[in-house]
Amino acid sequence: MAFALLCSYLEYLVQFPSLIPGVKLGLCNALFIIFLYYEDFSSTLLLSLARILLSSFLFGNWILLFYSLGGSFFGLTAMYLSKSYKKFSHYGVSMMGSVFFQIGQILVAMQLLHNTHLIFYLTFLLPTGMCAGLLVAYIVQPLLKKELLLCLFSSDPT
């Protein structure tokens, strides 16, 4: 949980240089990918929900809570389904999570703002989401192979 909040705080402090407003790297996705590979979906979803609630309270505002909830639900569901399909590497899982996170956020924005034209914003967001997903997967790749993570996520206390 502490690492998830740290990632949220870093993303809050360091704005990703982009011409497109709202573009972020998605550092928390790295943690959620690792969790999906070593834990179950419900634990990952619970961690995500706790992170969203705490980080919205600590670093953001309550309107961002709705965007984060929508994006996380879509992103985590897409990551879980693509991982379960077993045809995607962790790169594909990460990209699916990033892209569907953005789709979820746009759908929430369309609902809250009563503006269906926001769907066109995805033409700019999706390519950046795919790049961010690739970068996050690259960061996660060595961690998925480490014995340390197996020990951390092992249910055996020995």
Model description:
This protein has 158 residues and is mainly α. Helix content is 76%, strand content 0%. It has seven helices and no strands. It has helices at 2-13, 27-38, 41-58, 62-85, 90-113, 122-144, 147-153. α5 packs antiparallel against α6. It starts with a helix and ends in a 5-residue tail after the last helix.
How do the strands and helices of this protein lay out in sequence?
Blueprint (H helix, E strand, L loop, with lengths): L1 H12 L13 H12 L2 H18 L3 H24 L4 H24 L8 H23 L2 H7 L5
Helix pairs in contact: 1-3, 2-4, 2-6, 3-4, 4-5, 5-6
Write a concise keyword list for the protein shown above.
158 residues; 0% strand; single chain; 7 helices; 76% helix; mainly alpha
**Which parts are unreliable, with pLDDT below 50 for 5 consecutive residues or more?**
none
Order of helices and strands: HHHHHHH
By DSSP, the count of extended strands is 0
Distance between the termini: 23 Å
Count of DSSP-assigned helices: 7
Q: What composes the largest sheet?
A: none
Assign the structural class, choosing from mainly alpha, mainly beta, alpha/beta, alpha+beta, or little secondary structure: mainly alpha
Average pLDDT over all residues: 84
Task: Determine Rg (CA atoms, Å).
Answer: 15 Å
Q: β content, as a range?
A: under 5%
Query: How much helicity do the residues have?
Result: over 70%
Structural shape: globular
Brief digest:
The chain has 158 residues and is mainly α. Helix 1 (2-13) packs across helix 3, helix 2 (27-38) packs across helix 4 and helix 3 (41-58) packs antiparallel against helix 4. 37% of the residues are buried.
